[in-house]
Amino acid sequence: MKIFGDAFYIPQVATLPPVGSLGRVLVRTIDAAPYFDTGTAWKHFFTGATIGITDGFDDNSLHSMWTAGYQIAAPNGTVTVAETGGQILITVPSNAVGYNGIYSTTAFDFSNKTANIQFSGRGISNNGSFIQRFQIVVDASNYVEFQLAGTSINTRSRIAGVNSDTFISYDATAHKYCRIRYETSASKLHFETSPDKATWTSQRIINPFTLAMTSVRAQIAAGTTGAINSALLTANFDDFSIE
C-alpha cells in the first residue's frame, strides 16, 4: 500500500484499511474496479490535498482517468493509441504528420509534486522529426515536457508561447526513467533521469520557475513534425505516476 498525503492507494487488493478519523479518503486501484470512495471519484483524487496516482498500463484497457487525444493541438487520427502488452503503444504510419496520445481527464494541482514516466526506447528513429513527449500541460501556450527525438532528449519549458529547450544525448539505459519535479516553495522546476527509479540525475533546473501549476494535466504523446517515408514508427511508455 502507498500513502500520498491523505489518500490511500492500494494496488489490486480488496481489503480496505479503517477510515477512522482520516476525513477525506479515496481508495482506488488502477486497472481494476474502485473499492472505496468518499469523494467524487477521480475529480476528488486530483484536487485539494489528495494526490497520488500510478498506472502501469497492465490490463490492456485504457482507464477512464485517461482521455485519448492530444490536448495542445488537433490530434492526427491516423496515429493510433493503445494500451497493450503492459504499455501505452503509439503507432505513427508512414508520412503522417501530427500527434496523438492520452491526457489526464481531470486537471490537478502539481504544486510540490513529481511526475514520472518510463520511455521504453523502442521504435526510436534517428530522424528527429519523430518525437515522443511526456508533458505537464496548463494550456497550449504553457507547459513543460521531456521530448525524446532522434538521438537526443530535450527538456522544454513553454511559457506564454515561447519555448526554452535544453538538449542532451539520449542513453537508453541511463535515461530509462524521466521525471519532472516542481518545488513550489523554492520556485524551481527540475528535469531528472534515472536508470532504475532509485538514483536520479539532474538534467536541468529552471530557477526561478514562475508558471502557476495549480490546474494541469499530464499528457503522453508521439508523432512527427514532418512526413517520414518509412515503416511504422512506434513509441512505448510505461510506469506513469504522480507523487
Q: What's the multimeric state?
A: single chain
Sum up the overall morphology in one term.
Answer: globular
Number of domains: 2
Structural class: mainly beta
Q: Average pLDDT, to the nearest integer?
A: 81
Strand content: over 45%
CATH class of the largest domain, anyone? Mainly Beta
Largest sheet report: 8 strands, antiparallel
The CATH topology of the largest domain corresponds to Jelly Rolls
Describe the model.
Strand 1 and strand 2 (7-9) form a beta hairpin. The chain is globular and about 45 Å long. The model is unreliable at 1-50 (pLDDT under 50). The chain folds into two domains: 1-51, no CATH class; 56-242, Sandwich (Jelly Rolls). Helix content is 2%, strand content 46%. The chain has one helix at 41-45, and strands at residues 2-4, 7-9, 26-27, 36-37, 53-55, 66-68, 80-84, 87-92, 98-104, 114-119, 130-139, 142-149, 152-159, 162-169, 177-183, 188-194, 201-206, 217-224, 233-242. Strands 5, 7, 8, 10, 15, 16, 17 and 19 form an eight-stranded antiparallel sheet that branches. Strands 6-9-18-11-12-13-14 form a seven-stranded antiparallel sheet, with no helix packed on it. A two-stranded antiparallel sheet has the order 1-2. With 243 residues, the chain is an all-beta fold.
Entry keywords:
243 residues; globular; seven-stranded antiparallel beta sheet; Jelly Rolls; mainly beta; eight-stranded antiparallel beta sheet; 1 helix; 46% strand; single chain; 2% helix
